[in-house]
Amino acid sequence: MQKHCYKRVGSLLTRHIQTCNIMNLKTTTPEHLLIHEIASKAVKADKLYNLQELMIDIAATHLNGEPLDLEKMAKMEYIDTQHDIIGIQSNLNRDTGELQNCFLPRYRKTN
User: Fold this and answer.
1) How far apart are the first and last CA of the chain?
2) What per-residue string of b and e applies to 45-65 under the rule 16 or more CB within 10 Å gives b?
């Protein structure tokens, strides 16, 4: 997707086209149900989480560069997935959906 941006060059204001990376949040129904189950367990264990925000963070991570093993995560208790959930929330770039700071979830899909 392209958007028009304005950039100041010296005293001139110039218009240029910038390519934007749009984050993908389109989950399938099975993915959505698994993400809801994972996030619900986390919210039940720690009331500081917001269900919708956590679901978006998990979906963004899963769909934008670090596919998660959602089936395995959904079967586990929150304490087993806590590392991934805290790491995702702390290291997610919310503009691109990519994880930063070399964080790798334990429950990532391996090929």
Assistant:
1) 30
2) eeeebeeeebbbbbbbbbbbe
Which residue's entry shows tokens 């790491």? 87
pTM value?
A: 0.80
- CA dist 53 and 97 (Å) reads 13
CA atoms of 11 and 28, how far apart (whole Å): 49
Q: What is the largest CA-CA distance in the chain?
A: 59
pLDDT tens figures, 30-64: 999 999 999 999 999 998 999 999 999 999 999 99
Asked if residue 74 lies in contact with residue 34, where contact means CB atoms within 8 angstroms, the answer is: yes
List, for residues 61-78, the tens digit of each pLDDT value.
999 989 999 999 999 999
Domain-wise residue ranges, the chain: 24-111
